[in-house]
Specification:
The chain is an alpha+beta fold. Among the domains are: 77 residues, no CATH class; 81 residues, Immunoglobulins (Immunoglobulin-like, Sandwich). It has six helices and twelve strands. Strand 3 and strand 4 form a beta hairpin.
């Protein structure tokens, strides 16, 4: 049968773990030359990282996956911080406009040009950094117009400058986090490519050294090439609802042995009508546009070049 190299992280790491163990036990007797335990573990550690020793000697090695996860988290956090800085700046700017209306006019007029509102509007933009800088200049030139406390908000040149600087710093940090996330993602994808190439190389090398029914194939995480068997039935199928109103379910299950892909079937529990049928290579799938409030049955079957397993025991879920 075909030993397809996994494309996603979890099954690929599991295969490399098995492959490294198999190379440790049988590599010398088989005569592995290119895809040795040392070579396999190096590519594996690049993806997963390695814990530090006692007292962190040797130090822990972060994996490409964890670096990518950290970069994504940092990107989300810094993007949120940028939005918060903008929101705080808008609140300050609008409060300052309110304090100046008795002086410059309740609606926009030419007098507002002095405070930086030169577009015939008193609207505060999504990113108010420039308006805050102009308000800072106005307050610097007209210090008697400053108000120290408006329901806890300080309308002064110093406060406007600080808010503008906070937006600028948050903007810069968010932009940098986007670049770092892109680099981390590219490095992670490169690591996946290297790991898949390692697994593929091992598969080819074993094919030159082992007979198709040699049981040592199993020690490396591969199936016997001479044993054309259909995949096992997927187990532990779980459905998690999306947020209210999304009409979506997130379905996960265990990797099935000998599976190259899966078929997820969603039917209406009332009548059995098919609502969705999705083919996927990963042991997970997201299904949207389901009838809201409907109770559905979900089953998953595994597939490979020899055929398809029986469907898993159906589970029920309610569409949000």
């Amino acid at each position: 049968m075909s030993n397809q190299i996994p494309q996603s992280y979890d099954p690929l790491v599991q295969l490399l773990e098995d492959a490294a163990d198999g190379a440790h036990t049988h590599g010398i007797s088989i005569g592995l030359k290119q895809n040795t335990e040392i070579a396999i573990r190096a590519d594996l550690i690049a993806l997963t990282g390695a814990p530090g020793g006692q007292g962190n000697v040797p130090p822990a090695v972060p994996g490409l996956k964890s670096l990518w996860n950290a970069a994504k988290t940092n990107k989300v956090n810094l993007s949120a911080a940028f939005r918060t800085a903008q929101s705080n700046g808008r609140s300050l700017g609008m409060t300052c406009v309110g304090t100046l209306k008795p002086v410059l006019g309740q609606q926009w007029g030419s007098a507002w040009n002095a405070a930086g509102f030169t577009e015939s509007s008193l609207a505060m933009p999504t990113n108010p950094m420039v308006k805050l800088q102009q308000l800072r200049a106005y307050y610097t030139a007209n210090p008697t117009r400053e108000v120290a406390n408006v329901n806890g908000i300080t309308c002064t040149a110093t406060a406007c400058e600080a808010a503008a600087q906070a937006i600028s710093a948050a903007d810069s940090a968010s932009n940098q986090s986007n670049a770092l996330a892109g680099t981390a993602q590219a490095n992670y994808q490169a690591g996946i490519t290297v790991a898949r190439a390692r697994a593929s190389g091992l598969l080819g090398e074993l094919g030159q050294q082992l007979e198709d029914m040699d049981p040592r194939w199993l020690a490396f995480g591969f199936e016997l090439p001479g044993n054309p068997a259909s995949p096992e039935v997927p187990e532990n199928v779980v459905a998690s609802p999306g947020a209210a109103g999304t009409h979506a379910l997130f379905i996960h299950w265990d990797d099935a042995r000998r599976a190259d892909g899966y078929r997820a079937l969603v039917t209406n529990a009332a009548g059995g009508a098919s609502l969705a049928e999705v083919l996927t290579q990963d042991a997970e799938v997201s299904i949207a546009n389901l009838p809201p409030g409907a109770t559905v049955n979900i089953s998953v079957s595994a597939r490979n070049t020899t055929g398809e397993s029986q469907p898993s025991v159906a589970i029920s879920a309610v569409v949000p």
